Amino acid sequence: MSLEFDELEEKKKEEVAEAVDVETVEKSVGATDKADDKKESDKEDDYEDVCFMCRRPEHITGKMFKLPNHICVCNDCMHKTMDTVSQYDYQGTLNHPGMMMTPEEFNSFQNQFPNITFMNLADLQGQGGIPNKQKLKKKKTAEESKQETPAIDIKKIPVPHKIKAQLDDYVVGQEHAKKVISVAVYNHYKRVATNTMDEIEIEKSNILLIGPTGCGKTYLVKTLAKLLDVPLAIADATSLTEAGYIGDDIESVLSKLLAAAGNDTEKAERGIVFIDEIDKIAKKKNTNSRDVSGESVQQGMLKLLEGAEVEVPVGANSKNAMVPLTTINTRNILFICGGAFPDLDEIIKQRLSKQSGIGFNADLKDRYDKEKNILKKVTVEDIKKFGMIPEFVGRLPIICTMEGLGKDMLVNILKEPKNAILKQYQKLLELDEVQLLFDDEALEAIAEKAMEKDTGARALRAIIEEFMLDIMYEIPKDENIGTVTITREYIEGKGGPRIEIRQNARKSKAEE
Questions:
Q1: Do 339 and 382 fall into the same domain?
Q2: CA distances in angstroms from 505 to 54, 170, 332, 431, listed in the order given
Q3: pLDDT of 461-482, one tens digit each?
Q4: Looking at the 3D structure of the chain, how many domains does it have?
């Protein structure tokens, strides 16, 4: 009996222990669920409420009515809706004698227009309110901003040579352009960190990057975006049109910056904007139609570049009734504009060859035809003649030109950067346990072919894709291939690549 009693006692103890474990697990699960719910609610609390009907944010409308399914309606819209709905009930009967429509007339109206119905707030249940990308972050109070650490510590600002050293890992050549951008970004950090210095307001210096196609303008700024902590937006000028026409509004440039800053207006106001293809908004020559995507876009961008308070659509490219708006001050936003400016070299040559004549010291007309980096001699007058209005050029005080790519630079682009094209293909073949090698003469042949195409570094990938097609197709067929070496003869179409079998490769390694 004593043994049975002991066994029963042990079973009871085990059951109690299991019950305790279940309770603790349930408590821990409940606690994690509550923590997750709290995190989600905290994320929601970071954003301002937006009226579901008029799309105005909370700082404009004031306190809102909270409806089910995260739907908020402002005071004005709620009163207008209730005034309209109070005239009818949902069967179309009259609620007060002052109505202009009888129940019979209302029924006939519904028969004629069956798709028109009165709004029922229950129908909004499944629409889920407004996404966070169309909501603004709440502005901090004065006490919160005092307690918060500064956004940028002036002692931790990366100095220009460190910014340039990081750019050197990815961008080959273009030493002058990298210096200009490094100094501009460093000064921009200091302006944001100090705002004023001994009551002297530091003005921003917007940059105009000029260089031939494929020289690395966009790639330089994209690399900069990876290295910086400030919000950086890259926009395209080709889709911009004057307000009121089909296309992106000029304010859409700032909408992208606002999105990059997580809809935080204060953070966006100290960001950097790169506007690519800026030469495409030059004045159209010999046109009788309205220039809605040229000179008028330049005029609209003047206020952005200089510094003004601009109304910006949140989470959209154009202003409309269903998009909330916010005001952004562009005084502290650094603008970098880049463009290829085709045929600008011809304008420079015409200006330089005006002094040509007859005599010992006279310049010949064809003196500058073979000069590779003639863009270095560009002046503001040349850019105006290209089609940029004087007010626009005046707001871009730093004009930085980039060099055309020569043969040596193209070879370096193939093999030196961290994500060089050759390294990408070597990594792809490593997954098949095959080593890919390139002769120096083969690299020179690729660079020569790229120079013939005259499209800059973009031509390199096109050429490599062409001759790597057969290699990438044939190598997976044979598992014995160990090493593939690309030769000049293969690039020029006079031979094939050198292929070593894995056993032969192992023997050669053993002999070494």
A1: yes
A2: 72, 33, 60, 18
A3: 889 999 889 888 988 888 888 8
A4: 3
